[in-house]
Amino acid sequence: MPIDTLQEKIEIINCLxxxxxxxxxxxxxxxxxxxxxxxxxxxxxxTFYEDEKAKVLSIYPSKRIKRNPCRICLDIFQNYMxxxxxxxxxxxxxxxxxxxxxxxxxxxxxxxxxxxxxxVIYLKEKFPNVNIxxxxxxxxxxxxxxxEDEEVEIQNIKKLNYMKKSKGKNTSKNVIMEILDxxxxxxxxxxxxVPPKIPHKEPFAxxxxxxKIIWIGGRYLKFSRDMGQTPWLINNKLMTKHCxxxxxxxxxxxxxxxxxxxxxxxxxxxxxxxxxREDADVRMLGDGRxxxxxxxxxxxxxxxxxxxxxxxxxxFNSKVAAVINLQNVCKExxxxxxxxxxxxRKHYNALCQTDAIDMNQVVSIINTYKNAPLExxxxxxxxxxxxxxxxxxxxxxxxxxxxxVPGYSDLIEVSFVTQAGTYVKEFVHGDFHRTNPSLSTIxxxxxxxxALDVTKIxxxxxxxxxxxxx
Length: 470
Known about the structure:
tRNA pseudouridine(55) synthase; alpha+beta; tRNA processing; elongated; 15 helices
């Protein structure tokens, strides 16, 4: 039966007091709901006593000068510990975060779960006529400290037969909760003390300050044919002269600050994600490639219009790259970047070289595919086979158009509109017949790419168009 009678409650309170349990743990074990009892726990417990001498003036007897922490919560619920926790927060770098609102996420020693379970078993045995629930007792969302003896106290959880069902799992809080939920009391008592032993050490605090991730989006352009989107390293050697990511991140680091001496961002906290990528020797022109930068643990979420424009100017001054339309974007919008990698259309301009004698005929043949979709099948190109699995991909070339290059008898300029994910260089030369059909088979002559530009990516990103005037 539930704890209904006053006498039962008083007996349980006295029992837990004798075991040096704190007032808040006693109230929890009485299954008391609501906030007020926990704000002034001693006053709440005093309401159960008519005899003034029996009142809980303090959870611990005044004669005890030095005491051990609460057997269940290790004193985590005590006011003095909460004050220590606040002091720990104040001693961190929290003043670097320019926020008006804060949320506190707390964790707690895993041994507290086991200690609580042990105490409930003890009460069930000592008061067999009282129904004391396990389910409502083991949710400690407000506990926030760690415990030096934790690993010693939870070692026996691994000896329970139930751990075999969780082979390979560590003893996380969730695993411990799952085990205790199905563990028989007798089995538990074989491995753990009931009631829990008196703790001889207090918990200690570890405080981490973290801000929610933010994202900024825009489009980038590459003007150099010796530039990777991200660092391209082989044997720790950079393989390109320039790197777009480095240029962008350095610009962000210079221009996003919240005080003269502390950077708002750290390059290690930045992650670049783009809608696909072009080869290092391919320029990205037109209105650029969609991208976003994830900023972890930003000290200040308020990046201003002026800061965005300053970043754009800094990147443009590099002479080899540009970023445009920089702005804040929402997490919900990010999926459009990934979706666009497979479904968008891409426009290319290629300078191609061939040994065909009649260049006019070559141009004429190619132009029959203007606005005439062509289905091709591409095996994984040889040049990327070392890092991509072998497969055959079906892609569409939506349009091909060619024109002569004045003054050159072996060059033509070819424009393509392709499905995202098409390997354009391989479509041109055929990749040893691994792409079929190819431009080479269409004109019936060897042909290769001399220079390639991406001129347009059909993806609406970001949605808001930014102008240089507010």
